[in-house]
Model the fold of this input.
Amino acid sequence: MTDDSAGLGWIEKLLALWIFFCIVIGLALRKYFPEFSQNLGIGIPIGLFLMIYPAMTKIELHELKEAFKNKKQVGIIV
Done:
């Protein structure tokens, strides 16, 4: 039997705790600062898109950093 968690980094190991922490913060903001949460209405779909898009396109962070180092390529794409 192999231990799959041996290859995980500390970020992956703490991901569930981080998600729980963010949920608690979101609920607290909604309860104690309702006007603040109303202003976030447009930011939530944008944030979700920015989180999900790289996973769906299988973009790796180190490849993205390398791509932005070449200003000529970035200029052509934009």
Summary: DSSP finds six helices and no strands in the chain.
